[in-house]
Amino acid sequence: MKPDVKQHLQSMAKALNEIVLPELQDKPFALEQANLVVASLNLLAEVQEHQFAYVRQEFDDTRSLLAAWRLAHPEGADPAMQQIVTAPQGDTDTQGLGELAKTVTGDKARLRILMDKAPLPTGSPIEPLLHSYIERQLARETAWLRLTGFIPDASAIPAIANVLDSQKNTPLHTTDHPTYPPHQ
Amino acid sequence: MALADKRYLSDPDIDRIRSAYRVERTIDEALTWKLRRRRGPDYRLPPMAELQARLQAFLLRQIAGPFDILDLQRLSGGGSKEMFRFGLRRNDEQSRPIEETLILRMTPGESIVETHRLREFQIIAAMAGVVPVPPVLWVDVDGTVLGNPGMLCGLVEGVAKPKVAQHEGGSISGIGAGFPPALREPLFEQFVDYLASIHRFDWRSAALTAFDTPAAGTTEAARLGLEHWSRVWEEDSLEEHPVITLARQWLKRNLPVADEIRVVHNDYRNGNFLFNEDTREITAILDWELARLGDIHEDLAWVLFPGFASPDEHGTPLVCGLGTREAFLERYSRASGITVDTEKLHFYTVLNLYKLAILGSATNARAAADRQSHLDVMMNFSTGLGYGALACLYQILKTGGAAK
């Protein structure tokens, strides 16, 4: 067998488009929902195979940022925070998607605590790293959702596969970091 | 790190959230109701026979004498509330038979935004005669009879988008819808003048008991807005986002004083008014559910949001697809007599994007994740709106917001 989720998704979208939608022209509510299902299937066909790589990249970026933050400002890290950034990361390739996603959600909650409770001093090297982190996250999000029709200038946004490839090849700590005006 | 399961927040967790954010009374009521209801089963669309029976029971309490409900139908669109249309046949005060078409607007399990039906009912009733609005008839505030909170109003003829659009906007919400040149000028003038009428309205004599009044000359109006959306983020987000954190910090540091407290529509844009394509007249201003008493700059920043704009034949971006930014501000100032403050406009641009980002990336996603919406596919799909807003919000914070 050659497992191919994308093929199934594309076949469903085709059947809906060519067979089901024409039968719904006088049923506006059902037609609207069916059109949304088709659009969702097309989006999934582009992104679904990259879900694990997406979450893995979120994990790598977030851990990288948290570790750098602790090294630069150890006084600002709470005990729980110190525990997680010093804990061995283990072989994340063997973690299931759900487990890894849960870890990322927990790490992002810690990042919020740090941002709220341990404001960065002026000139901190973490400030530009944080903004690189944000820009990489936004690049992933807008690429993932570029087919929704809600993302500005979506035609200029690369596919999620390309964004993830590029980010994997240039880890967060190796990127050039943008400048950002100081907080006031 | 233990994270709360937001589908099943305990009563102490809900109390903690309620005490952490100061919001208006009825907004607190609506949000708290949402959290308690979320703990129940997945939402299911009401079967039409069941809904008809509930509607019958509700109307029995409102109408003296016999009546018939005709052809109850679910309407498309309505990402926020479930919408139904039906005919009501009854006798008027002189016992003459009349038939009218009514709209039933009901709160689903959850959707893109949680709002309070009494607020919506009261503000639309108050605006009758000030700007064109649908006639509101009855409201079931807590859903005791209808099953969920709901409101009935009359049908207003008109379309939200021209049959031949100048620019294809979002099909779901009318966002970004453009207008052909012949419609543009007359609609633009009415669009601006009605906004000015809303802002000039003397609300103090109106029956707006569901609304709290922030104090003029203080930052209370801005703070209530910030706390409202921050609470929604806390209740609905699937995970934290650093742009939301940065924005919240910036907003907290930059709360502006509201010189005067006025009615704010809070979703005034293309897609949220009906018009007659032949007479070129706006027939109704819709979607009042987010209205509040606050600072008019919140409305102005919303209207001016580039995401609602669409280009004319020469590529010039038009505010809500209708007129240039300069023309909008000039006409608005003349019609309202209000001087626009650019610093406040900037604050509310950030607050509005914060709100849009939260509704789109958190509330939408939460409704679908917990299977609480009447339109889960739409809720998933329109998370694009939220993440697009997050990207815009970050650009504003990065290029100017943080330096102000």
UniProtKB/TrEMBL annotation, chain A:
It comes from the Bacteria. This is Uncharacterized protein. It comes from Denitromonas ohlonensis.
UniProtKB/TrEMBL annotation, chain B:
Keywords: Transferase. The keyword Transferase applies. It comes from the Bacteria. The keyword Oxidoreductase does not apply. Coiled coil: none annotated. Residues 72-340 form the Aminoglycoside phosphotransferase domain. InterPro entries: ACAD10_11_N, AGP_Transferase, Aminoglycoside_PTrfase, Kinase-like_dom_sf. One of its GO terms (molecular function) is transferase activity. SUPFAM superfamilies: Protein kinase-like (PK-like). This is Phosphotransferase family protein.
